[in-house]
Amino acid sequence: MLDGFPRHGNGSRTYYPNDSQGVWHLAIAEKKDLYTFPTAPDPIAPEWPGTPIGASNTITRTKGRTAVFDKTVDGKPGLLKRLLASAYEQIATSGQKTHSHDVVIHGLRVRAITNSQHLIGYWKDNWYSLEEWARLTGKKPAETPDVLVVALGRVPTEAEAAYYSRQNDTVVFFNTSYYGQLKSWVLGAVGRKLAVDYGIHSIHGAVVTKDGKGVLYIAPTGTGKSTSTYGLMEFPNTRFHSDDWVYVRYAYRSKDGKLLSPARILDGGDEVARGYQTYRWLEEHRGSDATVIGRGLDDKEITAAANELDVEHPEAYAYTSEKVFYLRSNLVENFPEAAFDMIRSRLENCPDVTPEFMIENKPTIDAIEAKLRRRSPFDKMDNQQLRETIGRFFAFDNTRAMLDITTVFPKERVFTNPMEPARISAVMLIKRNFDEDVIVERLTIDKFMARLLVGRTPSGTKEIVYNNYRAVDDKSERTWIDTNEAKGVDNIWAEYLKAKNRPETLHEEMEMFRMMFKSAAAYDLNTILQKDKAVGSKMEAVSKTMRIIVAALDNTKDSFRYGIGDYRRLLD
Question: Do 541 and 514 fall into the same domain?
């Protein structure tokens, strides 16, 4: 395998993933394939059935980012109109069944229109319906959609592509049925609207609470975000909040004890700040009697005078986004018990494994098999079927499942109401860098913001705030960051604060992360305990890393720092 990545292909053609977006690049095969996918029924089919496993198994032609992707539609007059015209013509003339379904994502009504049976099924599983949202929260959704997504396959006049218009809050997909990209772009579109209009921060991260303290994990792919989320749940007094995406509201306490998350500020009857701009305005106008209009933690409207709010001590509250979680099935490698729920889930891109894969991964399969054999439903499988089923869960790194987390953990240990807040006490920026010996470190604001701005992943690529979901012009932001990074990473936050030409979308993001730093303790967590020769296995490394996280949650010192040579003192 090249760079340790699994691969698939036909003959001598093999594809390797080399960036966080899941893009696959052609390479020359050096040995036999480790897994394969069933052949498409025709040259333009966007989806087709895979070898049966779980409730269903859909193979999508595109398994990552589309060949064409454009988040700058608004800068190209007439483009959105042309795209929608193509979509409407396809709906009207193709004779294919088209589905339309509205959901609620953190209060916003989002409509999906698609001719993909796979996409509409995952869409309905993933999010709260209008009726579910009203029943759980007591809130009535808007009468019309806030965000529209159109996703159509078999459109002969269009390329495999994804488009986004911020001005129209519209996402258009052609000729792809891969749910991962659809979900990410929709979340990005919802996130932009929430940030600009309401000051709500959308974060690609996961949250678990322990003893009422929330820990937020932010990490590039492959560094241990999901592992840390599920690992912490093995401790008592923990609750599972979210696996992939959270909405954070920053709130101030008023003199009468109320918590207010600002959305708009009126001064002399004029609106002087909205959304993410309200935080800086309040800091710069502490004595003002301007009216702040916002929301309480229960989402009810609250107003207060600006000078009644304690702007020095904001608090961060996380809200979950998904009803059923879309996650990687390779979770079974570290948590074999997850297989009991995976085998009942709808799967996306679960491959067939080859004898070479089974031989190469025998120790891992042996360990998982020991946890599953003689337990239903695996007790009904013969030995070969059981072992191949286990292998199929983790052979392809991007196999996904729709998993109801309340089947994994007791319902009382899961946040099931999307409007129940979790107070964030600590934020962990996870990385995996074996060239460093530091395991955990309390971050200054300069280090915290530099990590988020540069966003370097283990593969060497860069991903601003480790969030490839963001609905922004990535190139303009990346160009600005790279120019200032050249002056030194240690100085990049200082350069950012002085800059006059930073992209507004970048400012929007970093203003809210500045608020995160003011609201919670920030840490660097380097998941490299396997570097310690006294650590015997990956499972032991994960267990010890979880104890380090718990210790950080209880920490009150700014000088908290442990490396590979002294981290055991922290555990003792």
Answer: yes
